[in-house]
Amino acid sequence: MAVVRDRRPQLNLTLELPLKDSIAAAAGRRFQLVPPAAPPASVASATCSEHRLADLEKTQVLGHGNGGNVYKARHRRTGAVYALKLLHPHDQSDPALRRHIYREIEILRRTDSPHVVHCHSIIQSGSSSGDFALLLEYMDAGTLESLLHQRRRFPEAALADVARQVLKGLAYLHAQKIVHRDIKPSNLLVNRSGEIKISDFGVSKVMTRTLTPCDSYVGTCAYMSPERFDPGTYGGSYDGYAGDVWSLGLTVLELYLGHFPLLPEGQRPDWATLMCAICFGERPSLPDSASEDLRGFVDCCLQRDANKRWTAEQLLAHPFVTRSQTDSTLAFKELLQD
Description:
The chain is α+β, with helices and mostly antiparallel strands. The chain folds into two domains: about 25-135, Phosphorylase Kinase, domain 1 (2-Layer Sandwich); about 145-335, Orthogonal Bundle (Transferase(Phosphotransferase), domain 1). It is built from twelve helices and nine strands. A five-stranded antiparallel sheet has the order 1-2-3-5-4. It has a two-stranded antiparallel ribbon with strand order 6-9. One of its GO terms (biological process) is response to other organism. It comes from Colocasia esculenta (Wild taro). Pfam families: Pkinase (PF00069). InterPro entries: Kinase-like_dom_sf (IPR011009), Prot_kinase_dom (IPR000719), Protein_kinase_ATP_BS (IPR017441), Ser/Thr_kinase_AS (IPR008271), Ser_Thr_kinase (IPR053235). Belongs to the protein kinase superfamily. STE Ser/Thr protein kinase family. MAP kinase kinase subfamily.
């Protein structure tokens, strides 16, 4: 769930696979999946008393999701505005959803980057319910998806700034051994100053071991990389870092074309259609107006063989990204003008 809810249900096709008991029980991990009864000790210790739910006034609903709701909230005393994400792990009948909630709390607690949404505080309910509230920075321009709905498509110059900012966030996360696993326009938040930040870490993962196929099938199906479906054919094993790069490549294409790039505009896909498009479909064509730099960038992101895909760090040095930063930053800010 992003701070602004994804409004494209036809592309929110998530693979529901059972989690094996051995996943939750595996020992020796830096990050452990949490039993339903209690949150990790690191999450509980991260709660702080400098913010209280009673001090926050909910002024607007920003989104709904399986884990809880997100509100725009104002601090009654200071007037500061936040995004308040209320999580109810013990209300979830699905153990996987509970683990996703605790995982998001743990990852937000440990990240600190200008390109990742900032968590000001983790507030635990004073009752015995085990509920949590995440006090997040409020991004006042919505998401890249909502901006796309307003503008229909992004000019290439603005896309260079988008790619640069998201890649900086991914490079930071990957250096921390965190893979996001659900990069898409609705999970990339924007503020009026032109900043773009990665959000929604419910299906993210701390990579301290090789992911097995059974716990790699999470995220939004439409943006999954080919090796998520068939690691043996497309790279030999699932590489979460390369999967994030594939999702970024699709995101850049979608913003440029104005629609999801792997299917005809307006088509309502099912799971099988998406899998075939991702694994076997033709590479999306770009109009003649697209520059060679943009074509090359997309090609580096959308290699079906994960071993041939560029890393986030390598892509930060790609000519499409290193073009005049001043011009691309101004181009993106123009999209934010009313």
